[in-house]
Amino acid sequence: MIQIDVINTIAPGVVGWKQPTASGSPVLTAGNIASSSGLYYQFGHGLCTVENIKSCVDDIAISDANLNAYLADLSKNGLSDVCHRVFSDEDHIDTGLLLKYENKFSETIENAVDFVGFEINMSNRNDISMVINSLITEFDSSGTIKLLLFNSTQNAAISSSNVTQVANSAVHTVVGWTINDLQYGGKWYLGYLRGSLAPKAIKRNYQMASFMTYFNHVEINPIRVPLWNAETMFNPSDVIYESDTWGLNLNVSLYKDFTNIVNSNINRFAKALQLQVCCNVVDLISNTVRSNKSERLSKMYALMELNGNRTNPNFPEHAGLIAKLGREIASLQNTYNPKGIIRATL
Fold first, then answer.
1. For residue 16, what are the CA distances in angstroms to 84, 285, 336?
2. For residue 99, what is the DSSP state?
3. For the chain, how many structural domains are there in total?
4. By the 8 A CB rule, do 8 and 30 touch?
5. Are residues 114 and 219 in the same domain?
6. CA 69 to chain centre
7. What is the pTM of this model?
8. CA–CA distance, 244 with 116 (Å, rounded to integer)
9. Is the domain of 83 the same as that of 14?
10. How far is CA 212 from CA 43, 91, 96, 168, in A?
């Protein structure tokens, strides 16, 4: 698993774009010029220039602002491509419902002024992530339930979702929330404020209805925070562990998460990022539908530069960009994802 939202925040500025010096050239932003690695895309290949990109994009009259956004997107997509090639092994550990067994809808839990839900405690590893695929809510009447996701290191809620409840029915709400120790640490709390609620949660006490699934690397416990009615993080010392599950259920997945490897060693990925973006730019040139001087001068060479030349005697024999990128990817795999070493441990 690679967290693309995290990758997108760190990709720009790893490899930079040199400001073109020709008169009338687009003015690049500081974010696109920055290079923490000291590498620049234009030095990765002669065809990878700002002028060529501007000449080949679909928007003939692209503004400097939109061109800068396009250049930043090339960096983001390039790093994403590199990560998915380096970490291509199976990363899925488990998927399932927290509460799997059937329940009856005849008993409810009386509302009170407090926060109720689950405490989620990851195993203090930054290479495991849990994704809450969907929330399942069961209440005795219709109404809107606002579900809040807190992290104990942050005062404001990390995420929230308003659920339109149907009486005596299990309502499934897709959220896709990712929980791990990479960004925040601490513990996580998922639940709702029930002080002003009219709907009452369905109680799970039929046979095995309250039996919770055990997931590797994560501990989930139902909790209550008495006399809490604010949409902010409470004091963790006020948490009371309970047996009721408050009309809540979760569908979750656990993954091996490689994001921290990239985040902590980002400049080691810089050469692969440079080559990947160069490949993408040369591919853009070879497939553009635009027709202009720059395109006509470069398009005839683009495919050969991308794939290399091993057979045409009219041109020097050389390895193409794809082959160079492949060697860099293989080096990263040997360093950070050697076969048989990094794997989902059950």
1. 21, 20, 24
2. B
3. 2
4. no
5. yes
6. 20
7. 0.78
8. 9
9. yes
10. 56, 24, 11, 21
Q: Are both 72 and 101 inside the same structural domain? A: no
Name the domain boundary from 204, 228, 257.
Answer: 257
Strands 201-202 and 159-165: unpaired
* Rounded alpha-carbon distances, angstroms, from residue 46 to 65, 138, 155, 316: 24, 61, 49, 16
Are the C-beta atoms of residues 226 and 136 closer than 8 Å to each other?
no
- Let me know whether 108 and 211 are in one domain: yes
Question: What percentage of the chain carries pLDDT values higher than 90?
Answer: 66
For 135-192, the pLDDT digits (tens) are: 999 999 999 999 999 999 999 999 999 999 999 999 999 999 999 887 788 999 999 9
In a domain, 342, yes or no: no
Residues 6+ apart with CB under 8 A from 305: 45, 47, 282, 320, 321
- Per-residue pLDDT for 318 more than 60? no
Cα-flanking dihedrals φ and ψ of residue 87, to 5°?
Answer: -105, 70
Q: Which residues 6+ apart lie within 8 Å of 213 measured at CB?
A: 96, 97, 98, 99, 100
Q: How far is CA 276 from CA 271, 280, 310, in A?
A: 9, 6, 21
d(CA 10, CA 262): 10
CATH code assigned at 164: 2.60.120
pLDDT tens-digit series, residues 43-98: 988 888 999 899 888 888 899 999 999 999 999 999 999 999 999 888 999 999 99
Distance CA(82)–CA(327), nearest Å, equals: 12
Same-domain pairing of 132 and 195: yes
Q: What is the pLDDT of residue 337?
A: 78
Angle, in degrees to the nearest 10, between helices 270-287 and 64-86: 120
- Domain of residue 132, residue span: 92-257
**Mean of per-residue pLDDT scores for the chain:** 88
Look at 311 and 85; give whichever has higher pLDDT.
85
First to last CA, the chain: 16
Q: Which of 301, 304, 305, 336 is nearest to 82 (CA)?
A: 336
